[in-house]
Amino acid sequence: SGLPGCRVAVHRSSGPNGHFYTTSRDEAACCSMSVEAYDFFHLSAVPVDGTQPFFRCLASDGHHLYTTDTGCEMAAGEGQMGFIARTPLCGATPLYRLFHPGGDHFYTTSAPERDSAIGLGYQDRGIIGYVWTTP
C-alpha cells in the first residue's frame, strides 16, 4: 500500500554512542549526531496483517538497540517506532541486525553493507524483520 501516511520513515545517524535510528529528522541531526541517511528505511505506520511492533530501546551503556521484543531485551524502552513485517510482505526487504562487541547495534537493508560490517568485527544477528525502502 503506497497510500500517504501508511509508512513512517526511519533515518540513520552515527555519533559518540554508535549508530542511531529515529523517525524524527530533527533528532537524527541533533546532539553530536551525523546523519548518514534520511529515509533510510520505512516501517508501517499502522498494524496490518503480518506486522509486529518495532521498538527503540536504550541500553545501560548508552547505545541504542531496536527490537520486536516488548521488554526491549531488558534495556530501557523509549517507545514504538512503527510496525515491521515478519515476512517480505508487499515488496519489503530484509533488515539485517548486527552487533559490535564495543556496544554498537547496527541495522542495514544492504547485504553488501552487512558483509562489510562483519569484516569490521560486527557479529551477524540475522534478519530482525522486513522493512520498505520507499514511502
Keywords:
135 residues, mainly beta, 3-stranded antiparallel beta sheet, 2 helices, 9 strands, globular
Report on this structure.
By secondary structure, this protein is mainly beta. 10% of the residues lie in helices and 50% in strands. The protein has two helices and nine strands; from the N terminus they run ββαββββββαβ. It has helices spanning 25-28, 111-119; strands spanning 7-15, 18-22, 34-44, 51-58, 64-67, 76-85, 93-99, 105-108, 123-131. The protein has a three-stranded antiparallel beta sheet with strand order 2-1-3. The protein has a three-stranded antiparallel beta sheet with strand order 5-4-6, with no helix packed on it. Strands 8-7-9 form a three-stranded antiparallel beta sheet, covered by helices on one side. The longest helix is centred in the C-terminal third of the chain and has 9 residues, at 111-119. The radius of gyration is 14 Å and the shape is globular. The termini are close together. The model has no long low-confidence stretch (mean pLDDT 93).
